């Protein structure tokens, strides 16, 4: 009887033990599987990120057909998963501007456990900076600049800066045209500023300095690496080939007269041929970092000379012939003019819809470079998230004599071989247009030569140009600029990503 009871207990406890053991083993196996799933969950994200890196390599090496499924291997060469790539391209004129890529990653052990991430690939354009210059420059005390400012030359920055001001120079010679010089020589204060020192009768200044309390000196950077200015200029022949030979965008050949006058109105651009001009003279202009005025002794910087004196003059429109309204193609907003160009009118605002680029250049084989004159305000129909403008001039990109008194221009403005600015117009001949009230720039200026939209006399009094000036960088054009906008780097990079 006792043996039967013991046997019964053994069986009962044995069953209980087996049930507990099975439960424990099941729990352990479940935990192991959960752990493996957690590992696979993290590995799937790593695999998806590897897909993004693979696609970036494809973009920067011009590899085609990268929208595919690829195996992913560990360091021993064993396949541990796969990634799948899909993309949406932002193109203009058949050229890639930016790309949205979706990568899905999963492991071989848990193929249904997927992670999906989306990334935006683009290149940094010159819209990162409010100004990129290749020359010495003087920023006036009235000028408010909100955005990074860079020059390969020295900078006298008397304005107000809300971002970095950087120069590639550790020191430079600040001459009379920048308000410096030995005692009694030069414009403005006519002295070598306290931040500088006279060495061998020359005023030697830091790469960036200021003589006012307007500037935030903590944001002055010098020396910094020099910008390869030739690397951020535009291949004008490529723009011409796209518009003329490939039949994309719009192309206007040599006018056979004095150039073209255009006004942009949304999807359309009105084009007129300038048939007669009136020459205005007794001006001053900028060549590289030098100021050249009419009557100066003839030098290599003078465009023309007479009796050993410089002639500085500029054409203004006298008569024109309407060529009509032309629709700007939505798939290629490049417009090429092989002649001088006037844009806008004093009392008429150009309205930009979509992303467009206007180029003025003479590539017919003659040595004469073209200029662009801005005469009226430029605004966006919506916002710079969907609209954008780039204007590229082969030589100077100027604000003309007959410009708006309160002028607002939006876009990226490139003076490839000349300068961006406004010539000096003597008020004795050109009042009231010699002095204008307000200039607001939203975007970026790229200028080979010294920039300037205001002129002062030796006493610091404004004698020509705009009295008040503000410049705001436009971040919406940094990664999504109009076609043929110069880039700071040739490589695409990931500028933002999210898990879907």
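^ structure tokens above, recovered residues below v
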């Amino acid at each position: 009887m006792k043996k039967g009871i013991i046997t019964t207990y053994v069986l009962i406890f044995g069953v209980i033990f087996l049930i507990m053991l099975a439960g424990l083993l099941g729990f352990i196996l479940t935990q192991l599987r959960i752990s493996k799933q957690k590992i696979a969950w993290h590995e799937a994200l790593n695999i998806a990120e590897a897909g993004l890196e693979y696609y970036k390599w494809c973009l920067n090496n011009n590899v085609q057909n990268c929208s595919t499924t690829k195996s992913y291997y560990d360091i021993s060469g064993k396949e541990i998963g796969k990634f799948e790539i899909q993309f949406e391209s932002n193109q203009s004129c058949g050229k890639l501007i930016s790309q949205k890529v979706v990568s899905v990653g999963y492991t071989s052990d848990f193929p249904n456990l997927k992670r999906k991430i989306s990334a935006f690939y683009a290149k940094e354009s010159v819209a990162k900076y409010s100004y990129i210059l290749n020359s010495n420059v003087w920023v006036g005390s009235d000028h408010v600049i909100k955005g990074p400012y860079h020059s390969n030359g020295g900078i006298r920055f008397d304005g107000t800066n809300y971002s970095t001001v950087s120069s590639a120079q550790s020191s430079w010679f600040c001459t009379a045209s920048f308000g410096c010089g030995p005692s009694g020589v030069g414009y403005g204060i006519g002295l070598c500023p306290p931040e500088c020192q006279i060495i061998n009768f020359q005023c030697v200044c830091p790469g960036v300095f200021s003589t006012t309390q307007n500037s935030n000196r903590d944001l002055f950077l010098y020396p910094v690496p020099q910008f390869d200015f030739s690397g951020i200029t535009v291949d004008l022949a490529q723009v011409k080939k796209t518009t003329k030979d490939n039949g994309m965008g719009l192309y206007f050949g040599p006018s056979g007269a004095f150039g073209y006058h255009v006004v942009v109105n949304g999807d359309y651009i009105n084009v007129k041929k300038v048939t007669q001009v009136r020459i205005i003279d007794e001006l001053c202009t900028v060549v590289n970092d030098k100021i050249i005025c009419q009557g100066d002794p003839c030098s290599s910087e003078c465009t023309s000379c007479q009796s050993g004196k410089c002639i500085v003059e500029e054409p203004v429109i006298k008569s024109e012939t309407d060529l009509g309204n032309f629709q700007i193609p939505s798939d290629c907003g490049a417009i090429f003019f092989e002649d001088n160009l006037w844009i806008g009118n004093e009392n008429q605002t150009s309205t930009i819809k979509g992303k467009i680029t206007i180029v003025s250049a003479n590539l017919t084989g003659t040595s004469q470079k073209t200029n662009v004159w801005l005469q009226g305000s430029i605004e966006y129909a919506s916002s710079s998230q969907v609209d954008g403008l780039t204007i590229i001039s082969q030589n100077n990109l100027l604000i003309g004599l007959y410009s708006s008194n309160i002028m607002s221009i939006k876009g990226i403005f490139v003076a490839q071989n000349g300068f961006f600015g406004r010539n000096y117009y003597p008020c004795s001949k050109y009042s009231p247009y010699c002095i204008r009230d307000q200039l607001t720039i939203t975007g970026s200026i790229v200028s080979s030569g010294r920039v300037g939209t205001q002129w002062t006399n030796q006493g610091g009094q404004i004698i020509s140009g705009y009295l008040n000036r503000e410049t705001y960088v436009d971040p919406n054009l940094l990664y999504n600029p109009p076609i043929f906008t110069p880039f700071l780097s040739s490589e695409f990079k990931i500028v933002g990503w999210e898990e879907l």
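The chain has a mean pLDDT of 90.
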